[in-house]
Here is the input.
Amino acid sequence: MPRKAGPAEHDTAARLIPPRPSLAALREAARHCTACSLYAGATQTVFGEGPAHARLLLVGETPGDQEDRSGRPFVGPAGRLLDRCLAAVGIERDEAYVTNVVKHFKWTPRGKRRLHAKPSTMEIRACRPWIEAEIAAVKPKVIVCLGATAAQALLGAGFRVTRQRGAFVPSALAPHVLATVHPSALLRAEPEMREAEIARFIADLQVAAKALA
Ligand code: URA
Here is the structure.
């Protein structure tokens, strides 16, 4: 007898993922993703980008307003700060594969602006097959989770960036996995704290850079 669909059987992107897909095939399939309702308010899917076998994979939360318009991850203010901090540890942005745990922009209106909103557990769960497939295709040596949403999606709900940032944690996802804060948290930091917070972020990235060396 057919069972009723309930929250535990909520749709995910798993049904859209071809067996042993290339990144190009994943990107194309993700363009049509409707596994959660976020697609309806977004301009387009913002899939990861970078070398197909990058040794470093960086994963954020969701695309922001500029990413939604351009279709590319981390191209707005947080992305520019990320690029600057990567350069400080000798990593060029285009050496890394950069992506998000949720591939559509989630926003709430504020006048004419679209303000970033945090994705729900269901939305993260629906999107998770994409990041898993990206990691399986890229096979990075090092994964850096940017912010609590990415860290908890990939390392478990109990992960605390405040306590565990900047240190490798055991994970089946890659040989070296660590989490740090999200670059947008640095942009929101009090001006008198900002440079110190950026220095701490760079120190966390340095840990990742050493593992790549
Ligand atoms: N914040 C994210 O987490 N990802 C982006 O792509 C941009 C901002």
Remarks:
- Residues 1-9 have pLDDT under 50 and may be disordered.
